[in-house]
Amino acid sequence: MDVGEFHWTDGWYFKRLPDGSVCIRKQGPDHQKVQFAESAIIPAAEWASIVCAVSKDGETGDRWNQAQDFHGRT
Question: Considering the entire predicted model, what is its pTM?
Answer without folding.
Answer: 0.74
